[in-house]
């Protein structure tokens, strides 16, 4: 299978690796290359393809290995793997690198709820120390005065701003934002479906149909095409006997004929995957549960009033509220009054806004058009300073009206460090 390597990716990685093995007088070469971008765009896989092409040995560390119940273990692991890569360079006489996957997941701090542990501090400090002294990396409790070969470090992550700022500064880490363009996607998807003899025009149509999807979507789509045959195999042998057929079986493994890889079938199955993605994004049960828990505290003024009556309509991929009418309440002089409040905002969003305001957060609103949505180029619409729920909802409705055919999202802003919390897309353009 001939996998595609994006030229921009190949050039960036090849220059960084080669540059670290050259002696350039008076030039300070960053030891670390940070590759960041949206999830599922093939950052790690593209790295592996470049390593194979260049004949580079890679020593791997996962972001999940950067935390431990024993303080200091992850930092020691980084030094150990770095020295292992240096030994490969010294003994085999070939290029080797240290590859740390998902560094932000193991050493990043996403919000105020993320613990900043001793190991997180040591991991950041160790990488900074190695970047400053790449030929003198010692293990705790021992000292070797023999200089090590310089080992380039490649790290991947979705958001490198979550890392300790001095680690990602220029001079220590060179940054590379990876987002495949249409040509890159056509080349990569063509490599994925090469064994299935999908024509170039079909590949282009498939990519254009799901242009907003990440690279891993197409791998999942190809895997899904086999589901019908696998289900047929399971039904033929019986659900109770599947284990005996596929695990340590004396019989030869089952074989499957080539599935239907026609363009129409691929698009049909792709739309099913997209529908499941939307359902996942729109359901957000955890947020609903958390909001419900925060609103379950006793409140005499609210408990005495009956719940408002609400009507709903289905549209544009989410449930929206037509109108919310507060029931009549009695004032201190005994008169009743009713306060109608028309709104088009989902009830969950209303609850989210109310919860954020109650916790002292400001409400940020951003928008983006359909073309820039896949690049993540969001623009600020407004920051709602009001503490009154009705005023905040009115401002939010005005923003939705101003950006009717665009994506709109809201989030809370912590007053002190301006960290974002509870980020939610509340409007999607109609297709």
UniProtKB/TrEMBL annotation:
Annotated keywords: ATP-binding, Nucleotide-binding
Protein name, per record: Ribulose 1,5-bisphosphate carboxylase
Family: Belongs to the RuBisCO activase family.
Region (Disordered): 293-344
InterPro entries: ATPase_AAA_core, P-loop_NTPase, RCA-like, RuBisCO_activase_AAA_helical, RuBisCO_ssu_dom, RuBisCO_ssu_sf
Signal sequence coordinates: none
Biased composition (Polar residues): 293-320, 329-344
PANTHER family: PTHR32429, RIBULOSE BISPHOSPHATE CARBOXYLASE_OXYGENASE ACTIVASE, CHLOROPLASTIC
